[in-house]
Write a structure and sequence with these properties.
By secondary structure, this protein is mainly β. It has no helices and eleven strands. Strands 2, 4, 5, 6, 9, 10 and 11 form a seven-stranded mixed sheet that branches. A four-stranded antiparallel sheet has the order 1-3-8-7, with no helix packed on it. Strand 5 and strand 6 form a beta hairpin. It is globular and about 40 Å long. It starts with a strand and ends with a strand.
């Protein structure tokens, strides 16, 4: 059974940090590009960050999180991470991880991703 499970969400004060994890099962993790998306109340889902599955480890970030968030992965643990620093109240959202078979370029559109986790809530208080 293919599954992505996020963890690490919670309540954090503005300026604080949080690390989200996304653990995969039932797939060859290293063959997949991994992405993080988020959806705030009343807003559409938006891209946050993505990382390639194979050797290059290339990454891409949304402008809104560039310099504050870092995406990484540990293929041996079948886990992708999103380290979030300098959090702001506007970062409050449900965060989802997603996966798609490795492609030459990293996709930022949610429709490009085939597999999704259930999401984890991150709330940043001011």
């Amino acid at each position: 059974q293919v599954q992505l499970v996020e963890s690490g969400g919670g309540l954090v004060q503005a300026g604080g940090s949080r690390r989200l994890s996304c653990t995969a099962s039932g797939l060859t993790f290293s063959s997949y590009n991994m992405g993080w998306f988020r959806q705030a109340p009343g807003k559409e889902r938006e891209f946050v960050a993505a990382i390639k599955g194979r050797s290059s480890g290339s990454t891409v970030y949304a402008d809104s999180v560039k310099g504050r968030f870092t995406i990484s992965r540990d293929n041996a643990k079948k886990t992708a991470y999103l380290q979030m620093n300098s959090l702001k109240p506007e970062d409050t959202a449900i965060y989802y991880c997603a996966a798609v078979l490795d492609t030459p370029s990293l996709a930022v559109g949610g429709r490009k991703y085939d597999l999704w986790g259930q999401g984890t809530q991150v709330t940043v208080s001011s």
